[in-house]
Amino acid sequence: MPNDKRKIGIVAPASRIDERTAERVQAVAQESFGGRVDLIFHPQCFLSWGHFAGEDAARADAFVEVANDARFDALWWARGGYGANRIAEAVLPRLTDSARNKLYLGYSDAGFLLAGLYKAGFRVAHGPVARDIEREGGADAIERTLRFLIGTPAAGDLEPSVNAGKPLAAFNLTILSHLIGTPFEPDLRGHILLIEDVSEPMYAVDRAMFHITSSPNIRKVGGLKLGRISDVPPNDPDFAQTEEEVVRHWCESSGIPYLGRADIGHDVDNKIVPFGR
Amino acid sequence: MPNDKRKIGIVAPASRIDERTAERVQAVAQESFGGRVDLIFHPQCFLSWGHFAGEDAARADAFVEVANDARFDALWWARGGYGANRIAEAVLPRLTDSARNKLYLGYSDAGFLLAGLYKAGFRVAHGPVARDIEREGGADAIERTLRFLIGTPAAGDLEPSVNAGKPLAAFNLTILSHLIGTPFEPDLRGHILLIEDVSEPMYAVDRAMFHITSSPNIRKVGGLKLGRISDVPPNDPDFAQTEEEVVRHWCESSGIPYLGRADIGHDVDNKIVPFGR
What we know:
Shape of chain A: globular
Strand order of the largest sheet of chain A: 2-1-3-4-5-10
Distance between the termini of chain A: 35 Å
CATH topology of the largest domain in chain A: Rossmann fold
Number of strands of chain A: 10
Helix content of chain A: 25-40%
Number of domains of chain A: 2
Largest sheet of chain A: 6 strands, mixed
Number of helices of chain A: 9
Order of helices and strands of chain A: EHEHEHHEHEHEHEHEHEE
Largest interface: A-B, 36 and 36 residues
Oligomer: homodimer
Strand content of chain A: 15-25%
């Protein structure tokens, strides 16, 4: 009998996770998908070097190992955190043709690599990471993501913009700001761009919106949708504008169509956004 | 008798100051420079609109009014804070030839406008702002800046890199990161680039260093000098690298010569860096 399980490799290009987190995700996968999925947490996920899940070389090697391994159908982020940018320049040139035959999925800090991968023609998607199991109700996010990764998404798993008939891209706003003007910034002409952010004071959201909407590349997007901006620390003095007022301001002053809210964010409702069409 | 006083106009393109701050600066100017300097605080400095020293239009109008007024020898920032980026695109096209015959001086958030002004060929410098009077020992910073603005700098007022025989530029690291890839980013080829920052956790310093050193423009600088990175909030987990290790890491991986420390920062010792040669 052929093995028709989808094999998913999990790596941590930024911050580490605990073994207990991996066990919880394995339990959800087993309970909800039984023999249809095989999750392999790379041991690198549990390494620790200061802020990171192991030194830069260890994180880069694990990513390349899983990406280039033809047995894996998908590479899934263990979590975001911080640090994928530190390995981007080392990882991308090492990817082989095997790496093109799989799906890459993560969000938040993952955007650093998703950007470069998308630019290079890989299949990438923005969506929940393994560590979202630790959120209240996190099993929903894990099940949604696994349905997508094994090719059987349910109605409502994908962000509704997939029906707009335009190419999509989704980013954490702060990460996108740090990609502007780098070799990893993809051409987003004509795309619907979805953004979200977390734990940034409103002045920093405003500043990042200034930055991305000042970029000639971003000014060519087909429109912008605002996901959730959560856990906003207090602004001193009060910023006097809400997140939607801020985003509308920069869309209007830069000529980018504002298309309303998007169903993405740092939470369990974070829907999946496949990049491109 | 001709009036040989240097006339300095003070505006607040970002956050506001109190009247009391202006009075303290006037007192220092009177005591140390007597009849040689005339400081005019534009009333806009004291306006308030949420985070900002008045609405965007009020801040832009005040800046343009002082910049285009031939009677002023210099435009000096009341303070940084946040918000010069919000008026940059509106201000720059309105500047006339009169605006070219003066010096522009500020730091921190001021970098948003200093960048665009320098790119457009204006004379700009990175140095203390009026509100630095509120720091302990702040009168030193005010006197240093006024000596420079009236054309009689003392030994030690200028950052020592002025002797390197290369063009200079100085920026707050986070502000420079938000300028990358925008129309305000000046060509820094061959420049010695001085950076400083304040109140950013080490992971954010690392991320901004990734960003600027990934930019093809910044990779063409002649070298980078690290000013002070002050009031760094704790990193959780500990970042495992010091500020100098972080900066050396990104200089090495991007091929930018690291030239050591610079005498700039968010403090009263902040020396003056005239842009260019």
